[in-house]
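INFO  loader      accepted 1 record
INFO  loader      residues=112
INFO  predictor   begin
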Amino acid sequence: MDVFDFYDSCYFFHAADVANSLYYALWFHRFDPEPERRRLARRLLDALLSGYRSERPFGSEDVARIPDLLEFRELTVDAFSHRRRLNSETDVRKRYQQVRARIASGALYVEF
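INFO  predictor   done
INFO  writer      dumping tokens
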């Protein structure tokens, strides 16, 4: 079992650590009503920031990057889904079609 996903490692904004954690935690709630996702996103973000700030500074500029980094992660997921050609599993295909539709519409992954 890997403790760290080196396949996904990169030299990037520290805020990406928080954004990616938020993205994948909310992935399991992507079909929840938007007000519930927003409340959950706020709770998760507060907890993530609290933990992160106990180890290193995380200022308002870092927080302001999170929506863009969430969109970046979503674009990465979209590209990955096409690379793997997830055409055989209808549930998986439907999930990634939803990602693509959200990207095309310019909608945020979640508002908080």
